[in-house]
Amino acid sequence: MGFFEIIGFAVILYYTVQVMLWIILDCDIMLYFKTQWGKPITILKGKVVWITGASSGIGRELAKQLSKNGIRLVLSGRNIKDLEAAKVECMNFSKGQLKSKDILILPFDMLDLDFHHEAFKRVITHFGDFHILVNNAGRSQRAEWNKIDMNVDRELFELDVFSVVHLSRIAVTYFETNNIKGQLAVTSSVAGLFGVPNSASYTGAKHALHGYFEALRTEKRIIKVNLFCPGPTFSNFLQESFVETQGDKYNQRVSSTDRRMSTERCAYLFAVALANNINLSWSGIFPINMILYVGLYYPNIANILMSMGVSKLFGKVRDSR
After folding, report:
1. How far apart (Å, rounded) are the C-alpha atoms in residues 153 and 243?
2. CATH label of the domain that carries residue 228
3. Which residues cross the membrane (predicted)?
4. Is residue 318, in this structure, part of any structural domain at all?
5. What is the mean pLDDT of the segment spanning 198-220?
């Protein structure tokens, strides 16, 4: 076999293996390798991690994953009863590694920007330190593009973007003032990487978050920035999703027969991404992984596929059918 034949064979083998991984894996390749050979989640033990939107869904499961590894927690959300239940679960998952004082319940509404500074003071007063902010609070959307009221766009951006940026700026200022190599994480979405149908405001908000936090990463290299983008996941997010009319909610439940990733698996992958400081990572069962790789790295191929009607298939995948 000649030199060029060997090169050609290597290229074919490389892309064959890559496509197979896109099909087999439930996350991006880098994140998968970190689950096998990266730093363990226990490397974060002793740090203080503040999770917003921790009363349910991915935020609550992430708290449980971290508590199993002895990581001190601040749990925030609007529903104090759900936060108290989450704390009990975390205490049980920690198997004695965490005491009650190691998990602070801090209920507040992310839209109450005036309270952000007070909330931050309470965290520092309680723990005397702070290391990682996980911006997980937010709401999704189901609406037709041209029927969305502009007030919905504004309301969604206020919650999913501006409140997140505001709290994060307080954290960055604290890290800089105290010369701490802090870490900011954002629960984004596959909608932050790819235009998702029937979620225009939500897609726009997630893209905006990527812009804000990628700018932060390049501007302040001392700050670690992690963007985690889950695909369809089992949680109660559909009930609270925005629609096209202000004040209304989608108010539908996720079905147990849907093709979605379990919240536990998603949270575990998120925890691995935090421990290994992965800039950008995503999760999702087939065909989410393949769609993202093609869309991000082979946009011309993606455009051809979209012109062939694949966008309808993507809509079905997003709705887990």
Report:
1. 10
2. 3.40.50.720
3. 6-25, 266-285, 291-314
4. no
5. 97
Give burial (CB, 10 Å; 0-12/13-18/19+) of 252.
Answer: exposed
pLDDT tens by residue, 248-286:
998 887 767 777 899 999 999 999 999 999 999 999 998
The residue to which tokens 């596929």 are assigned: 305
Q: Which of 90, 82, 96, 175 is nearest to 137 (CA)?
A: 82
**What average pLDDT does range 72-91 have in this prediction?**
97
Q: Has this prediction a pTM greater than 0.90?
A: yes
DSSP 268-284: HHHHHHHHTT-SEEEE-
Asked if 93 contacts 64 with a C-beta cutoff of 8 angstroms, the reply is yes
Q: Is residue 26 part of a domain?
A: no
Contacts of 152 (CB under 8 A, 6+ apart): 141, 143, 201, 242, 243, 244, 245, 246
When pLDDT is averaged across residues 297-315 and rounded to a whole number, the result is 71
Instruction: Assess if residue 92 is contained within a domain.
Output: yes
The residue range of the domain holding 252 is 38-286
Which residues carry out catalysis?
202
pLDDT in tens, 4-30: 687 877 888 888 888 899 899 999 999
Domain count within the chain: 1
Average pLDDT over residues 307-319: 62
